[in-house]
Amino acid sequence: MRSLMGCTSFTPSVLIQKGAIIPRRCIRHLCLRTAVSARGSSSDAAMVIDKKKVAVDILHEIRTEVSRMKESIGMVPGLAVLHVGDTKLSKPYSAPCGFVGIRSFVVHLAEDTTEEKTLECVSSFNDDPCVHGILVELPLPTHMDEHKILNAVSIEKDIKGFHPLNIGLLAMRGREPFFLPQTPKACIELLHRNNIEIKGKRAVVIGRSNTFGMPAALLLQREDATVTIIHSKTKNPQDITRQADIIISAVGKPNMIRGSWIKPGAVIVDVGISFVRDRNAPHGFRCVGDICYEEACEVASAIITDVSGDGLLESDMLLSNTLTSAKRIYNFL
Predict the structure, then answer these.
(1) Which positions are tagged coiled coil (predicted)?
(2) pTM across the whole model
């Protein structure tokens, strides 16, 4: 019986110097197979693309645009980050902001800060003309109303794109949202940058969360895909996924999607993250996705794994949205 944990294999890459070998791992890599037969087996070598390279490319593109803005109008975007309470799980944004030339304003509030004080801080960012993007780090302390504080962020500066009005605009034909939600945006960006066609394709999104599943489905619709959402009450989900050209999953159930669920030649985007016991792992646990990687590699034409795991692309999307906000405010084309 094939082990679901043995996800490492090796394959040459056309992107690397001749003779080099790259490990294809289930974490932090995008695997793009060049050909798939009717039985689902690949021909010859697979092309392997590290999604970190895509993240670095996007970061340099943002840096170029920020530099152009500064040279043209003497202004740069500003990102405000609000931490309340324990900051050990908070992501550092000062370094990437500094690299691309975006000003960062980081505020740390104590765990026992009142909700009123936190709202005042958000309001001050809303009114600050130097701030074009606002990020409230989650989770917030339990005594605060998370929705109230998040909804207090100006829709024009809500770079995560989760404001109810923004999602409403995303759902409407002929209307443009202020921002695209970061993780779904990262998924679409990866597909585009690897020449994976979306228009006219059948796409299945597994999961219907407000933070990923629903926005991802809306984004795919905007790309002219025919979209189906699978959730916990869906009967015989494998019958639906076997019809899909693109499968995007973010439910956090390890190895849920088996090779038998996948149409030969389909594209798989795995956003799910779970931790399973593994005595050989450094801390006794191993991070896996929703996809049974080994089986999927035998059937799919492309697999994108761990989109949100290291946060690189998500960070890029937030910086990109901050730049978009500044361009809109300054009317800079």
Answers:
(1) none
(2) 0.83
